[in-house]
Specification:
The protein is built from 6 helices and no strands. By secondary structure, the chain is an all-alpha fold. The protein has a domain at 31-43 and 82-147. The two termini are 18 Å apart.
Amino acid sequence: METQLKKLVQSQKENPNSFAISFTTFNYLQDSVLIIIAICIFHQLLLKLLLFINTPFINFACNYVFFTTSIIFCIGFLLFAFKEKSKYYYGLIELSFAFAVIYTAISKISSLTNSEFILAIITAIYVIVRGLDNMKQGFQSKLADNLK
């Protein structure tokens, strides 16, 4: 991967207009396997999380509200730190999570109200856009670091 990145940097220096083509071929097509794997993992994790949340977690969260809130806040903080360190892979996680949300919403459509389904789809679309933006920023940041 490093060799391909060096080739990309060299081609960018030689032909600045080649960035769009190189960006697409280098990043999205090469990492499509990672995206598929991540989608499978997050789909399964989301389904297991939904099963877990239905009973024991809700009882625990209701009894220990402050503790649960603190844990969720810490998870958010850790994810933010991960995002700042590795935007590309955070974006990949966002895309995977969006796919899992869409898949789950469609597979559970009979038990959702119209507004719940629409909210899930709109949220997933927003997360897809954010994920692609984070992947793009992460890639551009790495490219800029290698151009220095």
